[in-house]
Amino acid sequence: MLDAICLFDESNPVTYSVFKFQKLSDGDIEKYRQALVCPACAGKAYYRKASKDGKAACFGSRYHQADCREFKPSLAKEREEQHAIEVNQLLVDSDAMIIDFSRQPSLNRASVNRRNQAQLAKNEHTQKPDLNSTSKPENKPAEEPVLNTGIEQAATEALELDGAQTADTEKRIAKEGLEKLLHSLMRGSELAESDLWVYTDEKYRWRAKNLFVNFADAEPTEAGSPRMYWGTISHVDKELLWLNPADSKDVGIPIDKIAEPLKLRFGLEDRRDFEGAAIILFGKCFWNKAKNRKIIQLWSNDINRIFISKPEDSE
User: Fold this and answer.
1) Nearest by Cα to 237 from 67, 75, 29, 40
2) Are strands 278-287 and 294-298 parallel, antiparallel or unpaired?
3) Would you kindly state where each structural domain of the chain is located, as residue ranges?
4) pLDDT tens for the chain, residues 1 to 315
5) How far is CA 143 from the centre of its chain?
């Protein structure tokens, strides 16, 4: 996209070309970037600054309407749409779903190169908790969910108590990773409105409609009860302390303790790679001390419980 409309002042919308927008002061860019929409379909848009390796600044959107003239089909979009189809079919075919937090992100991202993989392996031996471990770290709250190999049996037993047929339950319990779930939500699957039982561990289950929450609808929960929060990232601060969702201006996601592991795991080489990315995480929402900003904290800073999908440069 070469143009975007800024709705910072909704009574006076301003259309910016990407060339004009990148010449604004850093302060104005940070102020306006969360108020951008596509000029053709009004889908929420993002701004990506020019990269160090020569990629030009650009506007993009993860929310284009299918018939939008700015929408450019790609292999990545086709894959995301296929994920939405598969998840919608899962809702029809399954009695319950287990979220597999241990499933690794796809390795087809070119930016996740051998150097990053080697560094990640090194970090696994020097950082606590272990990034690839789903074991319970020290000092976790007592009610913290723990994913383990008994989850399928627990889900089966719970469904039997609900009156499901024993012969069918094993076949009707789906298991999916965060990547497919995020892509399906971004492409309009019915997951977030479904009554499907979703297990986040062997003990805790939720109706999908109560578990999956877009950042725009995030509210502090009673007793810090966790949810699966999802949406897109507008930008990250210079110190890599906070992710700022594009879907809500009063929500922040602290990443100061996991910034480097996040970059390595998802191929986020600089701040630009966060801009416009889709994200899903299991965490709790609460007010800051001033009660003017909602904070969504990744559960125990467990990097297995977050997934980030980078935008395409051509969007």
Assistant:
1) 29
2) antiparallel
3) 3-61, 75-309
4) 889 999 999 999 999 988 899 889 999 999 999 999 999 999 999 999 888 777 788 898 888 887 888 877 677 778 888 999 999 999 999 999 999 999 887 754 444 444 455 555 555 554 444 444 444 433 433 344 444 445 666 565 555 545 444 444 455 899 999 999 999 999 889 999 999 999 999 889 999 999 999 999 999 998 889 999 999 999 999 999 999 999 888 999 999 999 999 999 999 988 989 999 999 999 999 999 999 999 999 999 999 999 999 887 544
5) 23
For the entire predicted model, the pTM comes to 0.72
Task: Output the 3-class SS for the chain.
Answer: CCEEEECCCCCCCEEEEHHHHCCCCHHHHHHHHHHEECCCCCCEEEEECCCCCCCCCEEEECCCCCCCCCCCCCHHHHHHHHHHHHHHHHHHHCCEEEECCCCCCCCCCCCCCHHHHHHHHHHHHHCCCCCCCCCCCCCCCCCCCCCCCCHHHHHHHHHHHCCCCHHHHCCCEEEECHHHHHHHHHCCCCHHHCCCEEECCCCCEEEHHHHEEEHHHCCCCHHHCCEEEEEEEEEECCCCCEEEECCCCCEEEECCCCHHHHHHHHCCCCHHHHCCCEEEEEEEEEECCCCCCEEEEEHHHCHHHEEEECCCCCC
238 token code pair:
């210079």
Q: Tokens 């699957």 — which residue?
A: 189
Cα–Cα distance, 80 to 232 (Å, whole number) = 15
